[in-house]
Amino acid sequence: MSEMSVQNKVKEFMQRGNRPYSTNDVQQSLGKEASKSAVQKCLDELVKENVLFEKTYGKSKIYCVRQTEEAKEPGVDLSCRIETLMSTLAELEKESDKEKLYLRSLLSSDTTEEIERRNAQLVETNNRLREKLEEYINEEKTPETVDPKELEIVRKRKSTVVGDYRKRKRVCMDIVYQILEGYPKTKVHLLQEIGLEDDPQDMPNFA
């Protein structure tokens, strides 16, 4: 399909609908007849020709037919703005839902469970060694009587688990902050909704 044909179809669709549309909305209406880049080019051209006007809300651009003086009705600008905001909100909610699903799948992955299991083992080992150390001290023995090889194994395991834990937490929090860009509530509400703990008191103690 030629560029002029695509532009005519885009113009016809916009005038027939006479409401705000995003580039994706217009492209989906044309199906395989035109690519998204071709539709975007036509929309930009129609804006230059004053057939359409463009509004930007955050990262989204919405296009609407420019009303002539004869066609204008009381409240048309307000109605257009309401439609635009509702369309933008729907897109943000859809994007937020996708991010939530991805975050939940990440948090429930086998890798996270493995880290939690290894962390529990590490805590148990540390507690056991502390008990041994206290016994040695109470018996007036020096800490050097603890097997150095065993201590070295614990240190290495601790270093590995701490690194994995912090890496996983950093990835999770990066995703959380991305969701917050379009999330209508606070960070605390989001963390409660997805079941993610961020309170230092609830985090493992790696000291």
UniProtKB/TrEMBL annotation:
* Subcellular localization, as worded in the UniProt entry: Nucleus
Coiled coil location: 112-142
Which residues does UniProt assign to the signal peptide?
none
- UniProt key word Nucleus: yes
Q: Where is this region: Disordered?
A: 1-29
Q: What cellular-component terms does GO give this entry? A: condensed nuclear chromosome; DNA recombinase auxiliary factor complex
Q: Name one GO molecular function term.
A: double-stranded DNA binding
Which GO BP terms sit in this record? homologous chromosome pairing at meiosis; meiotic joint molecule formation; meiotic strand invasion involved in reciprocal meiotic recombination
Q: Where is the sequence biased in composition, kind Polar residues? A: 20-29
Is Coiled coil there in the keyword field?
yes
Q: Which Pfam families match?
A: WHD_TBPIP
Q: Which UniProt keywords apply?
A: Coiled coil, DNA recombination, Meiosis, Nucleus
Residues annotated as domain Homologous-pairing protein 2 winged helix: 7-65
Domain of life assignment: Eukaryota
Which InterPro entries does the entry mention? Hop2_WH_dom, WH-like_DNA-bd_sf
> Major place of localization?
nucleus
PANTHER family attached to this UniProt entry: HOMOLOGOUS-PAIRING PROTEIN 2 HOMOLOG, TBP-1 INTERACTING PROTEIN
Task: Indicate the family of this protein.
Answer: Belongs to the HOP2 family.
Q: What is this protein called?
A: Homologous-pairing protein 2 winged helix domain-containing protein
Organism from which the protein derives = Cimex lectularius
